[in-house]
């Protein structure tokens, strides 16, 4: 894993919003007082949801809240790649899976679209709307190639659909998440090909089978 560092330019300060603080206290209450540091990961995530990224002032504030050394919070924030250490696009953070199944089904073409429309990976676009990254497996191999955009999976993508999704986000729209080839979730194209007889899952097949020597119902 490459070295991850905090952004060179940092904000002057950080403050928890009332909603973030309420949720942070909810997480802290899950642990004994002498183990409140265990809430560091969810609170880092809450801060990222509030600000879009994790800054040095935010790390300091979390350390004070959890009464733990600042370096310990820094270690967690820089280890887990789900934490963004510099500002990301206000419209969309696009994380394109580049692991083998997605690569074999065209993820490199999706990345080419991102580079052409947004700019270099891992960098904030000139208009501040987008950041795109290449990431490792996101666990949706059946729907390759795919990308996580903000909090949702966009699957079965093509260069054309990826370009349209980017254009939609740029226009302030909320593109529909999920598969983009017409199928439902991860089922085969054209619909399910097994367990197609309703008797197999509505209970009627089981009721029709009498188990030998089974006790009769009263």
Describe this structure in words.
The chain is 35% helix and 10% strand. The protein is an alpha/beta fold. Among the domains are: 18-79, NADH-quinone oxidoreductase subunit E (Arc Repressor Mutant, subunit A, Orthogonal Bundle); 92-179, Glutaredoxin (3-Layer(aba) Sandwich). β4 (152-155), α7 (159-170) and β5 (178-179) form a beta-alpha-beta unit. The longest helix has 12 residues, at 40-51. The radius of gyration is 23 Å and the shape is flat. The mean pLDDT is 92.
Core attributes:
218 residues, alpha/beta, Arc Repressor Mutant, subunit A, Glutaredoxin, five-stranded mixed sheet, 35% helix
Outline:
The chain has 218 residues and is of the alpha/beta class. It is 35% helix and 10% strand.
